[in-house]
Amino acid sequence: MGGIMGGGGKKAKPAQPYAGAQFQPYSYTSSLLGSTSGAKEGQYGFNVTSNPNPSITSLGQTAIGYSEPYLQQYLSKTGQDVPMFSYGDTGEQRAADIFGQQSALLEPKFAQQRQQLSSDLFGSGRLGLQLSGETVGAGNVGMVNPDAYGLGLAQSQALSQLSAQARAQAMAEQNQGFTQAAQQYGLNREAQNQQLANYLAGFQGSLGAFGTASQLEQGLVNQGLSIEQARSQAQQASASGGAALAQAGTQATSGGGGLFGSLLQGAATAFGTAVGGPVGGAIGNQVGGMFNKGA
Question: Does residue 264 form part of some domain?
Fold first, then answer.
């Protein structure tokens, strides 16, 4: 090396241009996840394959199989028309039924009252008593028996009140029935919505399990790629350092020992840093310094 530094030795041979770091065939195996490999494909291509753990493959396939029925049920239910709430009972029929039942219960009492009045009128000699309707407040209806008219009026008023009560009772029952129907409709809608939520959750859960399996496989592939990438980068850094040393040797023929020592020191520093980091750089500095001293 002393002859080279002094400029009187043999001329250094230039290094061949470096083609650049390239991905090389590799394989990586994980005891939990499986194995992955990469290989060249054609002139410029590179193909990565994976062989995940059979349990992971089974998990992904099972998840996909389970997710499809959930999705079909969900889409089928959401595509159906929403049933509208309706309540057609007006309460009229119920009011008529109540009035008929209650008036039928009163009829025997009414008949007894009429029979009793007829006996009383006959016994008192008032059976034939007749007054004009206007006199007793019945209007222009001709002659009427005031006692018979009074009883008939009382019974008519009782039936009128009974009709109003029957209608009020029917309306109360209608309101209660409407409330119950509305509550039942709400419960049914909540049940349908919950069913849809269950279908969607089942689909998302199954799909999530598939995504987990896919992520595990992708992690396996990425791990293998990252190792090969680190190797490729290290090779490229080493080659760059070697090329710098070769370039420095070539340039030494046109300069003195001091120039060669400086160039060689810079090349050695670059090479040492590429290979060994800061420690390698320190070694490169020492080597270059030794060359300068020798000059």
Answer: no
